[in-house]
Amino acid sequence: MSHLSWGLLFVIPVVIVLLALLGIHPLVSITLLGQVLLTSQVTIPTLAIALALNVGGALSYLVSPFEGAIF
Fold first, then answer.
1. How many CB atoms lie within 10 A of CB 15?
2. Per-residue pLDDT tens for 13-48?
3. CA distance linking residue 29 with residue 22, whole number of Å
4. pTM of the complete model
5. Cα–Cα distance list, 50 to 15, 23, 36, 46 (Å)
6. Which of 1, 22, 25, 36 has the most CB atoms within 10 Å of its CB?
């Protein structure tokens, strides 16, 4: 079971990027996923979850065509 929860760290950024491509702002998806993951019973340290959320946010800001931060 612990291998499955550590694999979640690689899935979190992908989910955030996919939601950004579907039109959901990365800040909204980071907030929602963070609240869900912190209240669930995963065995991953909170720092690792925070880093995965930050990586997903940074990637989605770079990839999303709707973000105004890209020049």
1. 15
2. 999 999 988 888 889 999 999 999 888 888 888 899
3. 11
4. 0.83
5. 14, 22, 12, 6
6. 25
